[in-house]
Amino acid sequence: MHLIHTERFVVFQIQSEWLVTAGDLCAISYPTRKEAETWAFDAADILASQGRAVCVLILPEESGGDRQHPIALTGRTSRVKLN
Fold first, then answer.
1. So where are the chain's domains?
2. Cα(12)–Cα(79) distance, rounded to whole angstroms?
3. Can you tell me whether residue 61 is helix, strand or coil?
4. CB 47 within 8 A of CB 55
5. Which residues have a Cβ under 8 Å from the Cβ of 79 and sit 6 or more positions away?
6. Are 27 and 36 a contacting pair, CB within 8 Å?
7. Would you state the torsion angle of the CA atoms of residues 14, 18, 22, 28, taken in this order, to the nearest 10 degrees?
8. Listed range (25-29, 33-37, 39-43) with the worst mean pLDDT
9. Are 49 and 69 in contact (CB under 8 A)?
C-alpha cells in the first residue's frame, strides 16, 4: 500500500496573535487572522502546484461560549476565500 504524505498548515489564535504551523516547522506569528490565512493559503498553493497534497486547518477564534467548528480544507483545489 502506498501512503500519500499531506503537508499540513494549521492557523490558530493564542491571545492576540495568530499563528501558523507548517509541518514540523515552528509557529509563525501574525497580528491578524487574515494575514495568517493568506500566508497558509499561499504556501499551500505553491505546494499544490508542485503536485503535493495539502491541508489547511483553521481553528476558530478564541471567544466566550460561542464556539465555532474548525474548518479543514484539503486536496489540490484553487484558493477558497473565507469570510
1. 6-74
2. 19
3. coil
4. no
5. 41, 45
6. no
7. -100
8. 25-29
9. no
Q: How confident is the model at residue 39 (pLDDT cuts 50, 70, 90)?
A: very high
7 vs 41: CA distance, rounded Å:
12
**CA 41, CA 65: separation in Å to the nearest integer?**
28
pLDDT tens sequence across 15-34: 999 999 987 777 889 999 99
CA distance 26 to 20: 8
Cell numbers 501558523 label which residue? 20
Which 3 state secondary structure label does DSSP give 80? coil
C-alpha cell at 63: 471567544
